[in-house]
Amino acid sequence: MGKLKNIEELEKLLKDGLDGMEVPAPTEVWTAVSGASAGQASTVLSKLGSYFSSITNVVKVALFVGGISTAAIMLYKDNVTKVQSDETNTSSKAAQENTGIKAENPNQEQLEDFSNAGNQNTDNQEVGVNDRADSESDAAEITTDNEPNELEQPGTGLEQPSAEEPNPRSAVSIQSISKECCKGETRTFNSGTTAGDWFVNGQKVKSNSVVMSHRFTQGGKNVVQFRSALGLSEFPVQVQEVDLNIVVKNLHNGQYLLSLAQDIQVVRWLIDGVELSSAQSIQPILKVGKVHVAVEARSGECTFLSEQVLDIKPLGNFSSPDIFTPNNDNDNETYFVDIDNYESFVLQVFDPVNNQRVFTTQDPKVGWNGRIDNTGKECPSGVYAVKVTYKLIGEPISNKNIKLTLKRD
After folding, report:
1. Which CATH class is domain 317-406?
2. Spatial CA neighbour of 221 closest among 198, 239, 242
3. Are 327 and 408 in contact (CB under 8 A)?
């Protein structure tokens, strides 16, 4: 085959090669070859150059156009950019022709090489050292083209984050035991080796630190945040809470019923710091005055505490006269003390002259009638010493020393 005179002959050569194939050529091959009309040489060269910039497309054409060397196609592509550049210099070339200077046609040289390559048998073709070097050079140029390359390895070409802005994907991971905790529990968080600022629910709690400990007093969802030069990290914490309500019911004689309004397992009851029971409800006798009641209860893995101070009013009372007259006038004949709501009671009467006990009782309803043990000899008028030991309900034991006057006249 002789030299190709123009781009139309190149186009016709490619079409004839493709028409002669037993298996139809791929659509994109036809599109690349016949995508321009005659007379648009630079457009055809541009389209062919773009199509052959992919190694895959070069192989496709080589498979279907057996008489055309792949190396020639690659050499052809090498001059495409020169043709596109020459379009911008048309006026310069015209000026050279007018002055009689013969301008070299790079397209013509490539067409000649392409035509000569078509006459060779590609199965038996022996490529020279220079041709192989040129082909390798062009192949290297193709693989560095701006178009995506099918042979690129995954993960290459990703845009790296700006050094001025933190990359959210590289933010420090917050380390903690669990994303759940109990109300009132203290948890510790760790950022590894990076120091930064710690926030809980938007409030800064620690600055420039790797470790942060926080006691959670707000139930529900809490958010722990860590901000450093690497970005912002968040760690949600679900805080479980149960508000325990102690129900107090006054029964009788200083006895109270204590229970919980919630249906929750009781761990223990404490009265003034003393553990009493783990029953769901208790019935203690509470002392008069300020009483501290506490209860611990469990829900799942969490233990909750409820405390309450009760003001217990006195239930019992004690009083004693300081004179009685056992003179058989039926008026104030017997000595009684007035006491109620008591737990214990002991009364003793002593003769102060010889320090002899003349009467004793544990029943306040039994009074002293002025005789020794109420059945013996009458005791003379005078002042006697009365000692009373008693305990009112809800109150500590009391001791009373009373001067009692016995008058018979």
Report:
1. mainly beta
2. 239
3. yes
How far is CA 16 from its chain centroid?
69
- Each domain of the chain, given as residue ranges in start order, spans 7-143, 171-240, 246-312, 317-406
Domains 246-312 and 317-406 agree in fold: yes
Residue 341 or residue 346, greater confidence: 346
Q: What is the mean pLDDT of residues 105-114?
A: 44
* Euclidean distance between CA atoms 254 and 314, whole angstroms: 8
pLDDT of 3 strictly over 80: no
Spatial CA neighbour of 256 closest among 246, 243, 265, 266? 246
Query: Would you say the C-alpha torsion 84, 85, 91, 95 has a positive or negative sign?
Result: negative
How many other CB atoms are found less than 10 A from the CB of residue 173?
11
Q: What is the pLDDT of residues 364-377, one digit of tens each?
A: 999 999 999 999 99
Task: Provide the CATH number for the domain formed by 171-240 in this structure.
Answer: 2.60.40.10
Domain 246-312 is found in CATH 1.10.287: no
Task: State yes or no: pLDDT of 106 exceeds 60.
Answer: no
Q: What is the dihedral of CA 65, 68, 71, 72, to 10 degrees?
A: -130
pLDDT of residue 395: 87
pLDDT exceeds 90 at position 6: no
What's the burial of 163, exposed, middle or buried (CB within 10 Å: 0-12/13-18/19+)?
exposed
pLDDT classification of 252: cutoffs 50, 70, 90: confident
**What is the spatial distance between Cα 266 and Cα 11, in angstroms, rounded to a whole number?**
94
